[in-house]
């Protein structure tokens, strides 16, 4: 009994000694004001957690494209997503973040290389409302840039040269995305002077990506065999619907970082309301996409159900911080119908294997315009951007601003991207040869297969070793056929 | 009656099938085969080591027709499968002794004829 007491006392003394430095530094923190430091910590944690969610969307885009490609073009997507994500990381650190969120009306000019930017409130004024650290905000905005870049390549599957990814990724993540997104949500003229509302980037992320996708597609042309001699589109089915389904859930999961994280602030609890609008829109989009598919195509198309979720999530991205739940349901429901109709219409002329133009482009435009219809007056005041939508105040003003913003961003990104891809086409080339396309990009661009057993006959895979005994034959003297000693 | 066996590139198949359908020869079987000939193998690189794959994928078409129709089939295949490069494939024509239509039990050349509406029905 007595011995136990002594042991307990020594352990507690040891713990006290270990805790001493912690308590001491807590005193130093107090000197700087505990409330402010706590909120900085909490908000930074939220922004980083949300950023990691959005980073995981890269896996979503990879599986979405893999699922919608044929098996001979599955492996190349992995290499592409890894390379694009990494190029964007370096470029956004060096140049992109400063152009997108630095101080300035046409483009930012503070914070290159995250170096020597001085007072963060002055260097990155638009994000000054949140006290999360600049590093947290950089990471969060970088993963947005990476999402936008990933969207560009949805239209190019199964026929583009690998090097094109690298060239355009540098220009896109250093100049095109940062400047255009600066105008929309980085404190540029569309947002600050006109009051354009785009909470998390229906235009700034999704439409920019889809516009790049349109520009490259116009130069690239359809996959071989997509259009018959009569010009009618033919199905080129993707090889893995289950992987596609996984990608939809990964993207949906990531969107809970994408929209709610754009509050950049955990303390006011606003982000939980954004979770609700995001979820409701996605649900509505899935259901209307399934219904539209059943009506127009006489079947419940698996890919369309997933496209419905993505289109609805893209559409609610702009409004997620500006609208109340009932409006989120309407925005998502319209997006679900829109995406099915658009995929069917676009497929007649343009070969967009994953439906990026519909799910990210048209749904992004719809979502941005929807702010002009449904933005709640109280939330417009809370975010201090623009005014209420048409259904609340009967004014077309906000809708006009949204439409102007969409048009400006589309024109800027399209012209720049069309020129860049035109130059790439004239110098390096955009498209692999017909033979390489038939063989598949896995073997022609990477010299290896995503699914080797499908392409290399089993006898050759087993190789040239000495002849093996069949399984179950006597392996060695004294062993029974099952391998157990006799 | 003759059996026409052709080994061709994958991409040549669809034009051949469409033309034979129009000419009234919808009946054929195809197999996806792997084989080797004069064409070089494909070398796969995998984490620093390589594996050369000598057998390349081809489509094998089998089509039994009346002796008088053999040249039509062969011409169609020659027209669409030829690129001029090594690896275009081969055609073999083999005599056939007898044929039966299982559904009716009838035998002989009339079993080879497609239904008069076959082409239009597609």
Our Rg estimate of chain A from Cα atoms comes to 27 Å
* Backbone shape of chain A: globular
SSE pattern of chain A, N- to C-terminal: HHHHHHHHHHHHHHHHHHHH
How much strand content do the residues of chain A show? under 5%
Annotated CATH homologous superfamily of chain A: Ammonium transporter AmtB like domains
CATH-defined architecture of chain B: 2-Layer Sandwich
What is the number of independent domains of chain A? 1
Q: In one word, what is the shape of chain B?
A: elongated
DSSP helix fraction of chain B: 10-25%
Number of domains of chain B: 1
* Strand segment count of chain B: 6
Find the count of extended strands of chain A (DSSP E, 2+ residues).
Answer: 0
List key phrases describing it:
heterodimer; A: 486 residues; mainly alpha; B: 122 residues; 4-stranded antiparallel beta sheet; 3 helices; 6 strands
Descriptive notes:
The complex is a heterodimer of chains A (486) and B (122). By secondary structure, chain A is mainly α. Chain A is 68% helix and 0% strand. Chain A has 20 helices and no strands. In chain A, helix 6 packs antiparallel against helix 16 and helix 11 (302-319) packs across helix 12 (325-347). Chain B has 122 residues and is an alpha+beta fold. Chain B has a single domain, classed as Alpha-Beta Plaits, CATH 3.30.70. Chain B has a 4-stranded antiparallel β-sheet with strand order 2-5-1-6. In chain B, helix 1 (10-23) packs antiparallel against helix 2. Chain B starts with a strand and ends with a helix. The A-B interface holds A 224-225, 438-439, 443, 446-449, 452, 455-457, 459-461 and B 10-11, 14, 34, 42-46, 51, 53-55, 57.
């Amino acid at each position: 009994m007595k011995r136990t007491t002594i042991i307990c006392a020594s352990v507690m003394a040891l713990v006290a000694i270990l805790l001493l430095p912690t308590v001491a530094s807590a005193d130093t923190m107090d000197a700087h004001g505990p409330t402010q430091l706590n909120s900085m910590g909490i908000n930074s944690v939220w922004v980083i957690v949300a950023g990691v969610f959005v980073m995981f969307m890269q896996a979503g885009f990879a599986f979405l494209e893999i699922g919608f490609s044929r098996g001979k073009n599955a492996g190349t997507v992995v290499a592409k997503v890894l390379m694009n994500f990494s190029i964007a990381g370096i470029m956004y650190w060096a140049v992109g973040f400063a152009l997108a969120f630095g101080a300035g009306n046409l483009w930012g000019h503070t914070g290159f290389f995250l170096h020597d930017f001085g007072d963060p409130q002055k260097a990155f004024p638009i994000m000054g409302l949140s006290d999360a650290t600049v590093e947290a905000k950089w990471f969060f905005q970088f993963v947005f840039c990476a999402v936008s870049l990933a969207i560009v390549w949805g239209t190019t599957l199964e026929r583009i040269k690998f090097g094109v990814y690298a060239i355009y990724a540098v220009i896109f993540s250093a100049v095109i995305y940062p400047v255009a997104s600066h105008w929309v949500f980085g404190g540029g003229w569309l947002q600050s002077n006109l009051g354009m509302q785009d909470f998390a980037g229906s235009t700034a992320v999704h439409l920019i990506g889809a516009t790049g996708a349109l520009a490259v597609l116009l130069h690239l042309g359809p996959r071989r065999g997509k259009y018959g001699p009569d010009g009618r589109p033919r199905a080129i089915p993707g090889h893995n619907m289950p992987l596609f389904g996984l990608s939809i859930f990964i993207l949906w999961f990531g969107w809970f970082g994408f929209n709610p994280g754009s509050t950049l602030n955990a303390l006011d609890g606003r982000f939980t309301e954004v979770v609700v609008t995001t979820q409701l829109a996605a649900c509505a989009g899935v259901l209307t996409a399934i219904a539209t598919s059943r009506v127009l195509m006489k079947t419940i198309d698996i890919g369309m159900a997933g496209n419905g979720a993505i289109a609805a999530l893209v559409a609610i991205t702009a409004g997620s911080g500006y609208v109340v739940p009932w409006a989120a349901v309407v925005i998502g429901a319209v997006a679900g119908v829109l995406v099915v109709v658009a995929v069917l219409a676009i497929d007649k002329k343009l070969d967009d294997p994953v439906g990026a133009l519909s799910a990210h482009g048209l749904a992004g435009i719809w979502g941005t315009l929807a702010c002009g219809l449904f933005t709640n007056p109280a939330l417009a005041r809370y975010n201090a951007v623009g005014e209420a939508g048409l259904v609340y105040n009967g004014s077309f003003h906000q809708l006009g601003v949204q439409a102007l913003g969409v048009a400006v961003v589309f024109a800027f990104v399209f012209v720049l991207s069309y020129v860049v891809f035109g130059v790439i086409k004239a110098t390096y080339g955009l498209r692999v040869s017909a033979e390489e396309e038939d063989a598949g990009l896995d073997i022609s661009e990477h010299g290896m297969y995503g699914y080797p057993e499908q392409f290399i006959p089993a006898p050759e895979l087993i190789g040239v070793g000495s002849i093996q005994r069949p399984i179950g034959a006597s392996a060695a003297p004294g062993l029974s056929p099952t391998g157990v000693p006799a | 009656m003759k059996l026409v066996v052709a080994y061709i590139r994958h991409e040549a198949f669809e034009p051949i099938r469409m033309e034979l359908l129009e000419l009234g020869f919808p009946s054929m079987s195809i197999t996806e085969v792997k084989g080797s000939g004069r064409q070089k193998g494909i070398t796969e690189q995998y984490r620093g080591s390589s594996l050369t794959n000598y057998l390349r994928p081809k489509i094998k078409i089998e089509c039994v027709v009346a002796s008088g129709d053999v040249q039509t089939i062969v011409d169609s295949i020659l027209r669409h499968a030829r690129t001029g490069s090594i690896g275009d494939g081969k055609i073999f024509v083999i005599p056939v002794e007898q044929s039966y239509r299982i559904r009716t039990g009838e035998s002989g050349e009339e079993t080879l004829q497609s239904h008069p509406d076959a082409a239009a029905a597609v």
